[in-house]
Design goal:
Number of helices: 7
Largest sheet: 3 strands, antiparallel
Number of strands: 5
Mean pLDDT: 81
Structural class: alpha+beta
Helix content: 25-40%
Bound molecules: zinc ion
Order of helices and strands: HHHEEHHEEEHH
Shape: globular
Strand order of the largest sheet: 3-4-5
Distance between the termini: 35 Å
Strand content: 5-15%
Radius of gyration: 17 Å
Length: 185
């Protein structure tokens, strides 16, 4: 298998690595230093325009982010996907893209087309169908392990897309423990 994992020694040059959340921040720092595309797109993020819409009982913040067009306009029909290399398979990642292995099943990567100042994408390392049900416990564990600096949500763009499993979202700890208990039963 292609080794895309940064060692702790390498991560340590870019931040503290006391827990996974800190390691992920060190990874972001390393990638911003060594991956030109990522660096450019994080700089582009500063030009993002936002607008707040106030509805009845809640607010919606809308973001205009032109650098996302490459990602959001990508064709995700079965034919288009079959015709291009899977951009989440380790062997197809750009040379400078590195990550942190998680549970030997996932790799924590930086998203080269960010919508947040700290934007990770965490695919399964295997080219498998998206399926939240089979990976829900992993998602909870990851949410817990990253909770200091990250919130997790899941993006499922298309059932045709493979191994985009995770997740950048934040749960209240009480809810996290409830979900963990439910999932184990
Ligand atoms: Zn793949």
């Amino acid at each position: 298998m292609v080794n895309k994992s940064l060692s702790e020694t390498e991560l340590l040059k870019f931040g503290t690595i006391g827990n996974l959340s800190q390691k992920a921040e060190a990874l972001l720092n390393e990638q911003k230093s060594n991956w030109e595309l990522l660096q450019a797109n994080f700089i582009g993020l500063r030009k993002v325009r936002t607008k707040l819409f106030t509805l009845d009982n809640f607010n919606v913040k809308v973001q205009f982010n032109p650098t996302r067009i490459t990602s959001t306009a990508a064709k995700v029909d079965a034919k288009s996907i079959a015709e291009r290399k899977c951009f989440l398979c380790l062997e197809n990642l750009p040379a400078p893209q590195k990550g942190i292995l998680y549970k030997n099943d996932y790799i924590i990567l930086c998203n080269p087309f960010p919508i947040f100042e700290q934007h990770l994408t965490i695919p399964n390392i295997n080219h498998i169908p998206q399926n939240i049900e089979k990976h829900f416990l992993d998602m909870l564990d990851l949410t817990f392990d990253l909770k200091d600096n990250f919130l997790c949500f899941i993006t499922v763009q298309s059932v045709e897309l493979l191994h985009r499993i995770i997740f950048i979202f934040k749960l209240e700890l009480k809810i996290w423990f409830q979900l963990k208990a439910i999932t184990k039963t």
